[in-house]
Amino acid sequence: MKRSRVNEIMAAADEMIRHYGFTLPPFAYWSPEQFQARKAEASRLIAGRCGWDITDFGDGRFDEMGLFLFTLRNGSLADLQRGGGMCYAEKLLISRQDQISPMHTHFLKAEDIINRGGATLVVELYGSDDKGGFAEDRGGLVRCDGIDRPYGPGERLKLAPGESVTLMPGDWHAFWGEGGDVLIGEVSTVNDDLTDNIYRLPIGRFAEIEEDVAPTHLLVSDYDRWLA
């Protein structure tokens, strides 16, 4: 993706987030130079990969297959492993109309996916085989707004604003906006986007960036290079 396109997506996402009554935290608006100057005090943000995340999954077709994310807070795997401390994470996402976030699951993370505003969020579901792999002939059990309900293979949940689904490790899922763009909240256990996203097809988690202009703000995928 071109950096100019990433900058445009950031600006549009910030406008949509504000439209639905949310405001991103102050570090969201730091320039790259400000982030570099404050990297010591921001070490937890950097380690938790909090911040802007825009991906086309390495496919080069953001409008058809892509996702906007902003990680607001993220705990530590060490806390999760010992069963105490900051064991949770929170994100805001934007899924555009008919923009696929491709079929995947997680080994570790459980997550609530919440329609925070906009159009209908469609979540397509499949279960796992005995080894945790994608099973096109299996369903499972999810919790919708606190109520357990079974799902069949390939079933599509349709979540209106305010509605949510709880997905556990092994629930394979893809999602997109139907009838318009959707602002999504994600509340989960500790998030690890480097190792805990398992996709059905061999795709990349992060976009490759072509530096045609300077970045407005850093992506989490920029941290290793810009903040080393």
Observed structural traits:
metal-binding, EC 5.3.1.15, carbohydrate metabolism, 12-stranded antiparallel beta sheet, single chain, Jelly Rolls, D-lyxose ketol-isomerase, alpha+beta, 228 residues
Uncertain segments are none
What portion of residues belong to β-strands? Answer: 35-45%
Distance between the termini: 23 Å
Give the CATH architecture. Answer: Sandwich
Shape: globular
Determine the mean pLDDT.
Answer: 96
Briefly note the CATH topology name: Jelly Rolls
Sheet with the most strands, sense and barrel status? 12 strands, antiparallel
Number of domains: 1
**What is the helix tally?**
5
Quaternary assembly? single chain
Determine Rg (CA atoms, Å): 17 Å
* SSE succession: HHHEEHEEEEEEEEEEH
CATH class: Mainly Beta
- How many β-strand runs? 12
Helix content: 10-25%
Sheet/helix structural class: alpha+beta
The CATH homologous superfamily is termed Jelly Rolls
Brief summary of the model shown:
This is D-lyxose ketol-isomerase. The chain has helices at 3-19, 32-37, 43-47, 77-82, 223-226, and strands at 51-55, 67-74, 88-95, 101-105, 111-128, 134-135, 140-144, 147-151, 155-159, 164-167, 172-189, 198-199.
Describe it.
With 228 residues, this protein is α+β, with helices and mostly antiparallel strands. The protein has a single domain, classed as Sandwich (Jelly Rolls), CATH 2.60.120.10. It has five helices and twelve strands. The chain has helices at residues 3-19, 32-37, 43-47, 77-82, 223-226, and strands spanning 51-55, 67-74, 88-95, 101-105, 111-128, 134-135, 140-144, 147-151, 155-159, 164-167, 172-189, 198-199. Strands 1, 2, 3, 4, 5, 6, 7, 8, 9, 10, 11 and 12 form a twelve-stranded antiparallel sheet that branches. A hairpin with a 2-residue loop joins β7 and β8 (147-151).
